[in-house]
Amino acid sequence: MITRQQLTEVGRTIKPHGINGEIAAAIDPILDLDTARCLVLDIDGIFVPFFVGSWRSRGSEAVLLNIDGVSDENAAKSLCGKAVYALNEDVHHDGDDDDGFYADDLQGYTIVDDNASVIGTVVRVDTSTVNTLFEVERPDGSTVYVPVADEFILGINPQDGIIEMSLPEGLFDL
Fold first, then answer.
1. How many domains does the chain have?
2. What pLDDT, on the 0 to 100 scale, is given for residue 97?
3. Is 134 exposed, middle or buried (0-12, 13-18, 19+ CB in 10 A)?
């Protein structure tokens, strides 16, 4: 069974295209459709893999997908308007650091500032915007977003599950 922790959101299905089951979708460039093993959609609360038979670009913002087993407009329509996920290992992450970490690998790590003060725990990695963000739960229970950027990460300690960061002053005052 595929779980949410194994997935990265990479786009959205938009609408059927034509009568032969093609689906227009917006797919983030962090996913190479030629090498991805499958696309995953949430169908009634269950993450279901779908295999791409072929795809082609449609303008600069969308692609047209031929999904194995989807051969008519009604089947395509039932898959539209949904978030599209890919397996974490199929995704090229912008948050990579020189040690080979992916931003998603850092979920559960504690972020500390350059004075060793705890900022919070990474509860999710948000890739829905141009800039990848850590969603961080603060010790007081509030949530803040921290940019995943090499210039802010001072070090990563996988043994202790700690990310040391130097963040811009006032970041949490926005």
1. 2
2. 43
3. buried
Sheet containing 162-165: give its strands across.
Answer: 143-147, 133-137, 118-126, 110-113, 162-165, 153-157
Give the number of residues written for the chain: 174
Q: Is 88 within 8 Å of 8 (Cβ atoms)?
A: yes
Contact 67, 21 (CB under 8 A): yes
Same domain, 73 and 18: yes
Closest CA to 85 of 43, 133, 53, 56: 43
Give residues with Cβ within 8 angstroms of 144, minimum separation 6.
Answer: 119, 120, 136, 138, 171, 172
* Pair (12, 76) in one structural domain: yes
Residue 119's pLDDT is what? Answer: 94
CATH code for the domain of 142: 2.30.30.240
pTM higher than the cut 0.90: no
Domain of residue 157: give its range: 103-173
Is residue 43 located within the same domain as residue 108? no
Q: Which two tokens stand for residue 65?
A: 């997908």
